[in-house]
Amino acid sequence: MRQPCLTPPRGRWAARLLGVAAVATAQNMIYYPAARTPRHGGVLVESGRARVTVAPPRDRPQTQKAKTDPVSLKAACKASIKGDWRPERQPIGFTYHKNSCTREGKAAKRRTWHPPKCPHVTPTTAKRCLAKKNISRIVLIGDSITYQLWGSLLCTEATTSGFGAAAEASIQNHDVDYEPGSRHGFSVADAFIGGGLKWTFLKVRGQQRAGALVKALEQALDRGLLAERALYVVNAGLWHLLCTTQHAQCLREAYARAHGVECDCLDPMYGEHLARLFTVLQRANGPVVWRYTTAVHPQLFPERMGPVDRRKFRGFTDLNVRRLNKIADTLIKEDFPTHVTARRDAYNFTLQRGAGGHIKGDARHLASGALGSLAGLLFLEDACDYGRLARGLVGRWWQDW
């Protein structure tokens, strides 16, 4: 019997049905040339969907590649700064204090501390970072801790007084007297470190108070001593905690005894003087970084301090230092948020160091290891700002980790 002929489907729905069938067939069929054997005769053979199993590589260590993208590196570095730092040794340590270089032989004082997930940044690397921003100079303005930081990187050859011979020859001092023959004035000291990075300190004669820094900075800018583009690292604070009858911040002792009021050594004019300083800094050609006032450790003062010194330094407490930093922080956030960057790490770091990071018998001045750490932190945060390092603009810096 003749079988009936099946007519193919017609219409739009039929075309869709055929299209779906064609796609399904293409997905489930793989064509490959068959082996030319008598059985197959050299024709193409249909096959179903192939299943491919890839065996794992043999003898390959299962290690995860470290992240080196800029975002991860920057986040890891900034997070590690907030934690405990990893102690590291340096071959020799110098402390610059009272205009002289002291070589420290004890291993404990030759130690620097470094954030474990941050790169090592030398002055040479910092110079290359700053060159990307068209900056070749760092100007330090502040108290004796800032002066220590400036001088410590110049003590390449220890002498009994002053700098070493190599450093002394590279320093250019620009002295300015406010009046002829006057003892009042300031100096701008220029030196070179790290293969050409200009390293400058603005030093006021006498007490390094915010008000005194205002006048010195104004005249330095007017005289063109700070004309070139630079990174400004500024601090003023500890001098505003001295308790002496010469300054208005301390109540008269007779009044205090009569009214039962404890003499407060915090200068009530500190915020006003600081606002004037930040206003003048807006004239500076370059970014401005405010460095927190460093911690103090009254327990490190010598036991046999005279009554005058005890009264003078009784305001040196961490509570008062935090009050100073709070005033500066509030002022920056409210009035100078786009012009000044606040760096809080200096206080946190010096608070943790204690006796191991300070000169013996001194509650505030730092030994060489802590000074080296603060210099590295300055180069890392302010000169190279994390991300510039991570983007590889100064070489494969992570090799030094």
Verbal overview:
This protein is α/β, with parallel strands linked by helices and 401 residues long. The chain has a single domain (87-400), classed as SGNH hydrolase (Rossmann fold), CATH 3.40.50.1110. It is 34% helix and 16% strand. It has 13 helices and 13 strands. The chain has helices at residues 12-28, 70-81, 123-131, 144-152, 165-170, 210-222, 253-259, 270-281, 307-312, 318-335, 345-353, 368-383, 387-390; strands at residues 30-33, 44-47, 86-89, 93-97, 100-104, 111-114, 137-141, 172-177, 185-193, 197-204, 231-234, 288-291, 340-343. The protein has a seven-stranded mixed sheet with strand order 8-9-10-7-11-12-13. A hairpin with a 2-residue loop joins strand 4 and strand 5 (100-104). Helix 3 (123-131) packs parallel to helix 12 (368-383), helix 6 (210-222) runs parallel beside helix 8 (270-281) and helix 8 (270-281) packs across helix 10. The longest helix has 18 residues, at 318-335. The model is unreliable at 23-54, 246-252 and 387-401 (pLDDT under 50).
What's the CATH architecture name?
Answer: 3-Layer(aba) Sandwich
What structural class results from the helix and strand content?
A: alpha/beta
Q: How widely separated are the two ends? A: 89 Å
Return the CATH topology.
Rossmann fold
Largest sheet strand order? 8-9-10-7-11-12-13
Provide a brief overview of the structure.
The protein has helices at residues 12-28, 70-81, 123-131, 144-152, 165-170, 210-222, 253-259, 270-281, 307-312, 318-335, 345-353, 368-383, 387-390; strands spanning 30-33, 44-47, 86-89, 93-97, 100-104, 111-114, 137-141, 172-177, 185-193, 197-204, 231-234, 288-291, 340-343. By secondary structure, the protein is α/β, with parallel strands linked by helices. The strands form 4 sheets. The chain has a 7-stranded mixed sheet with strand order 8-9-10-7-11-12-13. The protein has a two-stranded antiparallel ribbon with strand order 1-2.
